[in-house]
Amino acid sequence: MSTESIDGTSSTAVEVTPAAADKALALLESENMDTDVSGLRLFVQQGGCAGLSYGMRFDTEPEENDTVTEHHGLRVFVDPASLNYIGGSRLEYEDGLQAAGFTVENPNITAECGCGESFRT
Fold this sequence. Notes:
Largest sheet: 6 strands, mixed
Radius of gyration: 14 Å
Helix content: 10-25%
């Protein structure tokens, strides 16, 4: 699924499900952040037993070279280096009896650790 970037060009950087967008927007608002400017930063960092892991945080604005997309009212910021690893991924939010949280479905993964917290491409 392609998404509209803020500048109007088509992008397949990261897809965000409605449930994930709703939860992230609620969390942004609970932090009194302006959802018209602020957004969710999705990134990749070194770590975990498979070598790489996902990171997420809220940022007040994008960095200069970020890919910025909007999904169901949520702005998502991805830096160029992270985009190489997570382009085409899908961010989901699951709320179940045993656990709740965001998950990333990444088609670029060649191996994952047993707990699913880290990966290799």
